[in-house]
């Protein structure tokens, strides 16, 4: 009997050795999420992460967040994620996406996880911003673009066309009094892109070749000079501080800017938002600002990719988007959230939602990094009248083409 009991005990021990223990079955899957948010954006994101953790506690999934200083954020991703030292999930704008993909082992492709229902969740252009060379690499979380911001005291009804814009702006402008109908950072290529894209221009063609000196780009620069010189509705060399000061002092009727400008507006200023006007000079086509789309990306080295993607889905859900919109003051990429009564009643959210339909996602290709320096030099030459728009853009085309060629040889 002793031998039988010993054999039974030994057999039982062998069986138990191969069964998962209670502790291993509930083993925690730690996920780390990196972001660059502060203030209300950070608070809204952390609230959602807390909700996700509560909902998935039984599965043993736990997410911790890390706010990375924005100036160092992109470089930190490039340096740590490919080595497996970074987060499981990170949030960033699409402009660096192509570079990270070409570098390798940074962003996980997610087409495997996508179905038609999930794709329909998003504003189409925001999902397109997550695509690189035909493959999807992230879920769009929110977007930012410039729009028309106007002083209701000076501009009771916002202009719908460029002709109306100039007419209104001329009535407001009094250079001796330091008052202007329109003020924006027109020397910054990011802001100028709204005119460039409106005329049908751009920085790369369908084949990926640079198109800095296209006829449409030249026309856009000519239009800017007309607003400056002939129409005289713009201040000379406007800085961010000057534009803010003019608007707050009632000396700028209209501004082209984004959500970041709203926090700078003085409390006593009654302002409104409206889509950028259409261009009479371009056959009635709308001005088309660039959109930057922040995506939620699964890090390629993550050991918990399924759980990481579940987090991305949760953050971009309609429920999550409502928190980000109303509490984080962001413009979600989720389409359905704009049908929510509270979101629909929010003038700021409504205005940027209207603008994104005509906006253009900023190119996410690595070659985009070659554009900025040459574009900035071209804008400076055009505005200082040291070169014609055609000559300045020809020089930019030559410089970008040379740099792109060098990049592609590597």
From TrEMBL:
GO terms for cellular component: ATP-binding cassette (ABC) transporter complex, substrate-binding subunit-containing. GO terms for biological process: maltodextrin transmembrane transport; maltose transport. GO terms for molecular function: carbohydrate transmembrane transporter activity; maltose binding. It comes from the Bacteria. SUPFAM superfamilies: Periplasmic binding protein-like II (SSF53850). InterPro entries: Maltose/Cyclodextrin-bd, SBP. Belongs to the bacterial solute-binding protein 1 family. This is ABC transporter substrate-binding protein. It comes from Cystobacter ferrugineus. The lineage of its organism: Bacteria, Pseudomonadati, Myxococcota, Myxococcia, Myxococcales.
């Amino acid at each position: 009997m002793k031998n039988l009991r010993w054999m039974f005990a030994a057999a039982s021990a062998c069986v138990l050795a191969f069964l998962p223990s209670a502790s291993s079955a509930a083993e925690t899957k730690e996920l780390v999420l990196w972001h660059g948010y502060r203030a209300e954006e950070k608070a809204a994101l952390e609230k959602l992460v807390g909700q996700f953790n509560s909902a998935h506690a039984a599965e043993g999934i736990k997410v911790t967040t890390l706010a990375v200083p924005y100036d160092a954020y992109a470089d930190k991703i490039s340096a740590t994620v490919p080595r497996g030292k970074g987060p499981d999930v990170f949030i960033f704008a699409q402009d660096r996406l192509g570079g990270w993909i070409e570098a390798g082992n940074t962003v996980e492709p997610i087409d495997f996880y996508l179905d038609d229902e999930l794709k329909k969740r998003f504003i189409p252009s925001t999902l397109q911003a997550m695509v690189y060379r035909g493959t999807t690499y992230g879920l769009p979380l929110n977007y930012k673009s410039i729009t028309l911001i106007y002083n209701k005291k000076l501009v009771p009804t916002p202009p719908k066309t460029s002709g109306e814009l100039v007419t209104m702006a001329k009535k407001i402008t009094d250079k001796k009094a330091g008052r202007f109908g329109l003020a924006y950072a027109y020397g910054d290529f990011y802001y100028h892109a709204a005119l460039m894209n409106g005329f049908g221009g751009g920085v790369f063609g369908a084949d990926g070749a640079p198109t800095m000196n296209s006829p449409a780009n030249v026309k856009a620069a000519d239009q800017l000079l007309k607003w400056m010189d002939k129409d005289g509705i713009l201040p000379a060399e406007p800085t961010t501080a000057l534009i803010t000061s003019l608007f707050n002092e009632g000396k700028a009727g209209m501004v082209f800017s984004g959500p970041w400008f709203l926090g700078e507006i003085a409390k006593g200023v009654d302002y409104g938002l409206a889509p950028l006007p259409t261009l009479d000079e371009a056959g009635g086509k709308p001005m088309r600002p660039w959109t930057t789309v922040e995506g939620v990306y699964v890090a390629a080295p993550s050991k918990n990719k399924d759980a990481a993607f579940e987090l991305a889905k949760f953050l971009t859900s309609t429920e999550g988007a409502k928190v980000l919109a109303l509490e984080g003051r962001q413009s979600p990429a989720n389409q359905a959230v704009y049908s929510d009564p509270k979101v629909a009643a929010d003038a700021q959210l409504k205005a940027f939602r209207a603008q994104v339909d005509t906006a253009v996602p900023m190119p996410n290709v690595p070659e985009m990094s070659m554009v900025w320096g040459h574009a900035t030099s071209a804008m400076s030459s055009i505005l200082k009248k040291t070169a014609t728009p055609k000559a300045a853009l020809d020089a930019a085309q030559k410089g970008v083409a040379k740099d792109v060629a060098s990049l592609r040889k590597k």
